[in-house]
Amino acid sequence: MWFFTEEERELKKVCSDFAQKELAPYAEEFDQKEDFNLQAFKRMGELGVLGITADPEYGGAGLGATASTIVMEEFGKACASSTLSYLAHSILCVNNIQNNASAEQKEKYLPKLITGEHIGCMGMSEPEYGSDAVGIQTKARKNGDHYLINGTKMWITNAQYSDIAYIYTRTGEERKNLSTFIVEKGTEGFSVGKPIHKMGMRASPTGELVFENAKVPMGNRVGEEGDSIYHMMKNLEIERITIAGISLGIAQACVDQCLKYSNERRQFGKSIGNYQLIQKMLAEMATETEMMRAFLYNVAKEYDQGKKGPVQAAMVKLALPKMATKIALDAIQLHGGYGYSREFPLERMMRDNKLNEIGAGTNEVMIMIIAKNLLSQQLD
Ligand SMILES: Cc1cc2nc3c(=O)[nH]c(=O)nc-3n(C[C@H](O)[C@H](O)[C@H](O)COP(=O)(O)OP(=O)(O)OC[C@H]3O[C@@H](n4cnc5c(N)ncnc54)[C@H](O)[C@@H]3O)c2cc1C
Fold it and tell me: For 133-164, how does the pLDDT look when each residue is reduced to its tens digit (9 = 90+)?
């Protein structure tokens, strides 16, 4: 993008090199095995991106949404599911601790999360509460010098590999009475439930977090009791912008693969790129990808400058994943039978991208947020 700083251009190059070397060659294998590429994740720590938004005093890079989106795009081109795990760690866990935790908590938890010695996750969703996140029922109750937490978190990215879980709980009857806790692996009464098997994002582990009278020290509450709604809503903004970056990476990877194939594949004595129906697909998918890039980085940049907020985040989250699914389906079509086969990465990219229309708030929830804001009224 023309407005990227020198630092952002350098970051893009470094992340692109890393992704092509450390992620792309293994993406297919880990998808097939439904396994987490732990080694690549640890190397992200050496690369210096696991604490992309965290303060340098804790080992972070001190950057914002634009830089984080650049990482998502470059990693997303190579392996979307490793990128989803990266997002859950760096944006859902680390960024939340950076923005909401006390200095003492940051000192205790951030350095190891940033080097990759520890892995983090964030637990908001529950079996009965997904889109209605404010309705969650996992309860935290004060009991002497600690809290007792009871409930189950569902769909948690990195659950099985996490040392640290950043979780939202209910601490009062009113809907707004939500409180956040940092829960360490090994905490009495806390366990990880069964892994969840998925159509895509298969190299990103997903599981349940189970709390049965989990004994969490008072000092692990983040912020004041009952004060977490703002934290929750605020972090969803950067989550939505950055997850759209994964869709941008997928779309660009589809375009690149289609251009190559259009020149290579010959039918009726010519490469298929000679046929206007193929040219139409190529031209449209490349144009849409450029639109996605311009829209997304404009929102990310303005978000970093404090000019854009929840509505624009919802808009990019609605637009980009939808467009990337269409592009991935067109890319499969352009490849004919080979596109449908596992010989090419396109079917994986389509399966992976579909998640981005659901996670971090569904398309329908994005529409609700945008429309409510446009109409400037609270609909019940
Ligand atoms: C692979 C994966 C990884 C995830 N990672 C995490 C994670 O790390 N942490 C975490 O907390 N969560 C995570 N999630 C959960 C994710 O955020 C939820 O799945 C998502 O918010 C949707 O919630 P739900 O699945 O309960 O669907 P529901 O809320 O039950 O929605 C079902 C359908 O109803 C629609 N709907 C709901 N309400 C309305 C309404 N008012 N108007 C119109 N339509 C509506 C939805 O759009 C959807 O189509 C993950 C999910 C997946 C699949």
Answer: 999 999 999 999 999 999 999 999 999 999 99
May I ask the CATH architecture of the domain 230-375?
Answer: Up-down Bundle (1.20)
28-50 pLDDT tens trace: 999 999 999 999 999 999 999 99
Alpha carbon separation from 194 to 154, 178, 189 (Å, rounded)? 10, 26, 16
Closest ligand 1 atom to 133 CA: 21
User: pTM of this prediction?
Assistant: 0.98
Closest atom, ligand 1, to C-alpha of 365: 47
Q: Which of 3.40.50.1820, 3.40.630.10, 2.60.40.1230, 2.40.110.10 would CATH assign to domain 121-226?
A: 2.40.110.10
Q: Which of 8, 74, 237, 239 is flagged as catalytic?
A: 239
- Ligand 1 centre to CA of 126 (Å) is 9
Question: Ligand 1 pocket check: which of 84, 155, 196 to mutate, most ligand atoms within 8 Å of Cβ?
Answer: 155
Domain 6-119 falls under CATH 1.10.260.40: no
